[in-house]
């Protein structure tokens, strides 16, 4: 059954974490983001624990606010959020030139919204890799509901070390997921390994742009809040990602921050100054309603202790994303298409 109500949201907070442990998991998660070099090293060293805690705590909020696909999209005028998300997913399938019957990998697949859409759209078999067990369980339920469990499946594993043979996939995509990698070169190198020669990897990467000034305290604050509220290590620049791709052995076909071409800003659904009937839950009114519902549900014991705290950092992150977008210092859609050279 689809879980989209406030009660589902509240009862899902914490994912696979024991409900009585949610508050302490939240406190541990927050420690990974303390403002010192030691915390940054801890975040990298313990990335599996850090990212897993984040998604156990945040997934039900994501599903409640965004539906089954946990990513942004360029927005066209007159288009609903769902339509823009679907178009953004189709774009990846078209860029990869996917053909019926091919084997495709979705790196960091969430609860499988994009994976199901791309499998249906292209007629391919899509495997999602995700190290969050709670999301994989949820994704399997949703595959059954959508009747695509014969063409879509999941593997619970770390995308930094994947349980697949070399040269396994005809195409690989990732949507707003490899930003969680503790090391971008190691991550792309592992993707390179499992991709068949001559085939492509398409990615929407979270990056800071050239407008980010490391000496600007406000830019640094925004970046820190985005990292804290999204379970991220240090956010990388577009240049670092391209360099890592080349080092891993890929040929770059093309790359662009496609946020620049979006007629409406990608962050509009999170912008408090904007109201959208199509996506009420993430507007200022929706957030107010949800905040109060979560407060009540936590008080009466239906939501685990700590739920309000989780919601508070997610709200803060949403505001930081809007600020980052408005300042032009951050993009969630640095797109690249890269090919693994053919074996001669
Ligand atoms: C923002 S979500 C995007 C999910 C999905 N691509 C979508 O657009 O709906 C990032 C995803 O990456 C997954 N992830 C993060 N680090 C991972 C790792 N080391 N191995 C596998 N999955 C990971 C998270 O569990 C989460 O599902």
TrEMBL record:
InterPro entries: Erg6_SMT_methyltransf (IPR050447), Methyltransf_11 (IPR013216), MeTrfase_SMT (IPR030384), SAM-dependent_MTases_sf (IPR029063), Sterol_MeTrfase_C (IPR013705)
Gene Ontology CC entries for this record: endoplasmic reticulum
CDD domains xref list: AdoMet_MTases (cd02440)
GO MF annotation: an example: sterol 24-C-methyltransferase activity
Class of enzymatic activity (EC top level): transferase
EC number per UniProt: 2.1.1.-
Pathway: Steroid biosynthesis; sterol biosynthesis; Alkaloid biosynthesis; vindoline biosynthesis
Keywords: Lipid biosynthesis, Lipid metabolism, Methyltransferase, S-adenosyl-L-methionine, Steroid biosynthesis, Steroid metabolism, Sterol biosynthesis, Sterol metabolism, Transferase
Source superkingdom: Eukaryota
SAM-dependent methyltransferase Erg6/SMT-type domain residues: 54-341
One GO-annotated biological process of the protein: sterol biosynthetic process
PANTHER family in alphabetical order: METHYLTRANSFERASE (PTHR44068:SF3), ZGC:194242 (PTHR44068)
Similarity section: Belongs to the class I-like SAM-binding methyltransferase superfamily. Erg6/SMT family.
Protein name: Methyltransferase
